[in-house]
Amino acid sequence: MTDPNAASRRPVQAVVLAGGQGSRLRPYTDDRPKPMVEIPGTGTPIIGHQLVWLAEEGVTDVVISCGHLAEVLQKWLETADLPLSVTTVVETEPLGRGGGLKYAAAHLPHPDRAWYATNGDIWTRFSLRDMADFHTERDAVATLALARPRLPWGAVQTDGFGHITDFIEAPPSTFEINAGVYVFSPEFAAMLPERGDHERTTFPHLARERRLAGFPIPQGSYWRAIDTAKDLTEAARELAAQGR
User: Fold this and answer.
1) pLDDT digits over 81-95, tens only?
2) Which of 6, 140, 148, 198 would bridge 202 by S-S if both were Cys, CB 3.0 to 4.6 A apart?
3) What pLDDT shows up at residue 154?
4) DSSP the chain
C-alpha cells in the first residue's frame, strides 16, 4: 500500500563531496577538481550532471564540500545556470571523509529533515525518490545505494568437469558495492566523527544495530564512478550508445 505521506518525508536537500584530489585522473585534474572534469561529448562537468539529477529528484538546496582547487569549482558555479540553490564550504584543514561530511551537513538549511549525499565523481541516474521511500520503510538511519559494476575483464563459465562452456565479456560483479549515493536521517549528522572516516566508525555501528540499509540500484539504471581516464572514455561511449 502506498504511503500518502511518503512524499513529504523525502529529502529536499543534499551534500555533494567534491574535495578529492583526483590524482588517478591526471592530467585532467591538474587545473580543476575531479567533479569539474567533463565527460567527453556532453559539454558539462560531472557535477553539472549531478545537480540536474538532484533537481529532477526534488532537491532544492545543495551544499558542496570543496577542497582541491576549490576556486575553480566555485567560479563555475557562479556563472552556471543552476536548477537549484547551491552553497559551497571549504575545509580549512583535512577532516577525513566523515569529518568533511559532518562539516558540510552543518550548513544544510533544514537540520531537522533527511538529506541525500553523493560523492562528486559519481555519474548515475536512478530514482532517489524510490530510495528515500525504501529508507523510510526500513526505519534506517542511513541507506547506501548499491551497485554491481561490470568487471574490467572477460569471464569464463565452466561445467562441473572443468570444461569451459562460455565466455562473457565484462560481466557484472557478483558482489554489490557502495555506489557513493546515500540517504541520511536527521540524526545521522550527530553520529559522524569530527575527524576521520565514517565508513570505519559510524557505518559499522549502525550495521550492528540493523539501522543501516542497502538500496540496490535498479537493473538497467546507469551508474559509473569516474576514477580514471578510461572511465571517462567508457562513460562517453556508453552515453553515446544510449543516445544521451
Assistant:
1) 888 999 999 887 778
2) 198
3) 81
4) ---TTHHHHS--EEEEEE----GGGTTTTSSS-GGGPBPTTTSSBHHHHHHHHHHHTT--EEEEEE-TTHHHHHHHHHHS--SSEEEEEE-SS--HHHHHHHHHHTT-S-TTS-EEEEETTEEEE--HHHHHHHHHHTT-SEEEEEE-PBPSS-EEEE-TTS-EEEEESSPBPSS-EEEEEEEE-TTHHHHS-SSS-TTTTHHHHHHHTT-EEEEEPPTT-EEEE--SHHHHHHHHHHHHHTT-
